Every structure is written in structure tokens, then in C-alpha cells.
Amino acid sequence: MTRPFVCGTAIALLLFAPLAHPGELVNGRKSLVLPGQAARLVVDLAGGSLADFHLNSTTLNPLRWNTPAPGETSIHGFGHFLCLDRWGPPSAAEGARGMPYHGEAANVEWAVLRDVTTQEGVLEAQVTAELPKAGIAVRRTLRLSVAEAVVLVREEITNTKALGRIYNVVQHPTIAPPFLDETTVVDCNGRRGFAQGGALPNPEEPSCFWPQAWNADGERVNLRRLAFDPNPNVVSYVIEDSYGWVTAASPNHGLLLGYVWKTSEYPWVSLWREVHDGKPAARGLEFGTTGLHQPFSMLVKKGRIWDRPLFAYLDAGESTTKSYAAFLMKIPADFAGVESVSVQHRRLILRERGGANREFSLETHGLIPDQDQMQPKIPSPHRAPNSL
Hints:
Layout: E1 2-3, H1 9-16, E2 24-26, E3 29-35, E4 39-44, E5 50-55, E6 80-85, H2 92-96, E7 111-119, E8 122-131, E9 136-145, E10 150-159, E11 165-175, E12 185-188, E13 190-195, E14 207-209, E15 212-214, E16 220-222, E17 234-239, E18 243-250, E19 255-262, E20 268-276, E21 279-288, H3 296-302, E22 304-305, E23 308-309, E24 312-314, E25 319-330, E26 338-344, E27 347-352, E28 359-363
Antiparallel strand pairs: 1-25, 2-3, 3-4, 4-5, 6-11, 7-8, 8-9, 9-10, 10-25, 11-21, 11-24, 12-18, 13-14, 13-17, 15-16, 17-20, 18-19, 19-25, 20-21, 22-23, 26-27, 27-28
């Protein structure tokens, strides 16, 4: 959704100006904590990352990637961080002038705009940040169910400058050990995809279909699991359903982390994989407005891939709002992975892959729209089997 911010930059900055809510200290870092009865969510204010999302019945936090050591106060992205105003590298000239990789959002201080309140079974709070080089302000509203491990995150992004501009926003949740190991299973509803690293004019070739990808040696790789070889490192897929979803399941730990969002807001899902010393070290479950990991100049030259956008546009003073939900579920030790995720009658329903034909569900408390309230399925010119 977009709307004009008609009063200009000064009013935009005033509306996003933080109030005096200092947050609390978590491992020596200023943080905002939403303490539900089912789950606990921590937002790190030195970069805005979702630093910790775990069930109260365990201390296992899937989002442990790049977690700072106790007492470290540097500003950087970790866990689930926000890529804004770009995904990937700046141009050489932008980098020389201080623009960070993945943009400024994870490299600036965030402030608590509204502290945690509880109403009708939902914890709610707001945080905000200013990105001075990008000329963007972001206001994030978090709504965590008290009784269930499900949170809705809504981010309002405003162009505070006097000129329109292109931009991208990509969510970058990243799982890490101990939740991540060789048995962890990743599933999503991506369809056609390609490995990052190809050159113009056709970086999307050769293409593949989830869950398969081509590695640099021309061999097929199943991306559901990661062992000792991270090649291909990043693979991006388009989504053809009205909503996108991605899950990571650890049967060894009896836990699943998942995300769901409207495809009209985030049409791409991208999977990043990293290995250290022959062991899985990180898996990015990324989703956003682009599927091409390049500076803006290359995105403009390419324009679109498979009729999907590679960037978005914000006019002067304009705002846009994008949302997603994250959830945690307990799973059995013989869990085989996810076949589908749907939202019906205020319940999120997860259907297992394989012959077990089991369903797992949780109450959404209305935080996620039912499936029939989302837009129709996106038509696709490429209908291929779910394999290479």
C-alpha cells in the first residue's frame, strides 16, 4: 500500500521522531522486549534486528546468526535484520561515500517510538529509524500474540527527500547453529528460480524450479538441506501464490520457524547458505521486493525477470507499508518438512510433506489475513514440474 506524504520532509521527520523510551538491556545491548506467554521477541536497537524469537518452553533461538558477544555494543545486522534501501552491494561510488552493503537500516541506531502495551490478547510496540544517506524513514509496528508464538511486523517506509527514488526492501532472517545442522529442513513456495552471480543480459539463466538449483559445476542440488557444500550460495525464486511462505524445521530440536507474507508486497524469496569448517553455519530465509543481488544500475538495465519487478519506487514524501508474520511451532522428531502453509478461519495451518499427511496449526488472533482475503493467485507463463 502506498500513500502520498503531502506535508513534506519536515512533517515526515516530525511524525517519526522518537519519544523518550530507552528500552531495556539484553546482554548489555539496548533492546525492546515483547514478553508473551507463549514466546519472547527481542528487537535490538543497535541496528533494528529481531535478535531473539523463542518459545518460552525452551531457550533455543533459531535466529542466532552473527549474534554479538555479551557486552558488545557495535551497530550491525544479525538474526533477522532489514535490508533497506537495497539488497546487496552499493555501487563503487556509493560505497566510497559510505553506503553499506544491504543499506543503512541495520547500521543505524533505532529508537522506541511506543513502548509495549497489551490489548485484546496482543502485545504491541513501535520502533523507528532514520537512514540519512538514503533519505528514508522507517517505522516498525510489532504485534505479538500473548497466547501463541506468532508476531505480525508492519513497516512503514517514507521517502523524506524532495525527489522520488527507486529502492528495495528485503527481510533477512538467518538461522544458525545449534538450531541449524545437517538435518534442518528448509521449505518454501518459491517456483522458478536462478542462482545469483550470472551476468547481464540474462542473469536468470540457467533457471531451475524449487527445490532444485544448479551449482557452479552444472550439477543439480536440492536446497532443502545443507551439509558441507554451500554451492550455490544464493538462489532466488519467484512466488506464484497470493502469499509467500518459508519455513525451517529442526526435528532434532522439535522446533519450526516460519514466515508468511503477501506476494503483492514481497514477490521474491531467496535462500542464502554458508558453511564453516565443513559444517552448516548459516541459512538466510530472505524475502523481498527484488530477486537480483546487484547495484541499482544493473537492476535498472535488467528491469524485470519473468515479469517480476527488481526494484520499487517511492515518490517525494511518499510512504509505503509492508508486512509479514513470523511464527514458531513444536514438531515431532520424525517431521519430514512442509508441503503447504495456509491461513483459514483465523488459524495458520501447516501440512507436512510425505506420507504422514499430518497437519499442525496455531491460532493467529487475526494477526494474519485469511487466505481468501488476499489477492488472487498470480498467473504464470511457466508451469513446470517441481524439479529440474
